Amino acid sequence: QLQLQESGSGLVKPSQTLSLTCTVSGGSIASGGYSWSWIRQAPGKGLEWIGYIYSGGSTYYNPSLKSRVTISIDKSKNQFSLKLTSVTAADTAVFYCAAQTLGSGYYSYFDYWGQGTLVTVSS
Amino acid sequence: DIQMTQSPSSLSASVGDRVTITCRASQSINTYLNWYQQKPGKAPKLLIYGASRIQNGVPSRFSGSGSETDFTLTINSLQPEDFATYYCQQSYTTPRTFGQGTKLEIK
């Protein structure tokens, strides 16, 4: 049973870089069968997929954020990370890390989630 | 991007009712459609994947159906713990996209 836990700064100044880390326990991030995702939710709003990374290092980003996003993986620490540059107040959100299971029949779904961490962009 | 549109955006129902939430994709996604439940202050929880496959541990009163562009989530005999917000999500392609959510409230 995977467990995910986000960590990082909860307050970021406008124009600076948001950095978060997700620590995975209960399984190896290097094993196949998952992609490792970041999803955010602005206050009172819906869910927005940011991107994901495979254990081999391949990344896929939401085109709406692609120019500002980097997702990386550290297998030695069983962690993956998110960097979002040039943040504005519009980036204020709860950020979730999630594991997307790559199931049979090409089905994939986010079945393991962190508890979420609120990041506020404010001076 | 594939747009996911849910209806209604909110609905009120009573314990014991049967409710249906609809999700429409802007293009065909076969059956690559997932449903999640989210309670306030909590992470979303996977209910249904592959349009109709129930996730382990999810009560059987939840069911999903549909294919191509039109999908439904049905909850039979609503329980107090079912009052939450529900999201559909397509896994057909990237970027992964979610519906705007349906808030299910107690009448």
Give a quick precis of the structure.
The complex is a heterodimer of chains A (123) and B (107). Chain A has no helices and 11 strands.
Task: Describe the protein's architecture and organization.
The complex is a heterodimer of chains A (123) and B (107). With 123 residues, chain A is mostly beta strands. Chain A has strands spanning 3-8, 11-12, 18-25, 34-41, 47-54, 59-61, 69-74, 79-84, 93-102, 108-113, 117-121. Chain A is 0% helix and 55% strand. In chain B, the strands form two sheets. In chain B, strands 2, 4, 5, 6, 9, 10 and 11 form a seven-stranded mixed sheet that branches. Chain B is globular, with a radius of gyration of 13 Å. Classes of the chains: A mainly beta (123), B mainly beta (107). The interface between A and B is medium-sized, with 25 and 24 residues.
User: Which structural category do the helix and sheet elements of chain A fall into?
Assistant: mainly beta
What letter string, H or E per element, gives the SSE order of chain A? EEEEEEEEEEE
What does the radius of gyration of chain B come to? 13 Å
What does the overall shape of chain B look like? Answer: globular
Distance between the termini of chain A: 39 Å
**Could you tell me how far the N terminus lies from the C terminus of chain B, measured between alpha carbons in angstroms?**
36 Å
- Give Rg of chain A in angstroms: 14 Å
Biggest interchain interface, per-side counts? A-B, 25 and 24 residues
Number of helices of chain B: 0
Strand content of chain A: over 45%
Mean pLDDT of chain A: 96
By oligomeric state, this entry counts as heterodimer
Q: Describe the sheet with the most strands of chain A.
A: 7 strands, mixed
Strand element count of chain B: 11
Q: What is the element string of chain B, with H for helices and E for strands?
A: EEEEEEEEEEE
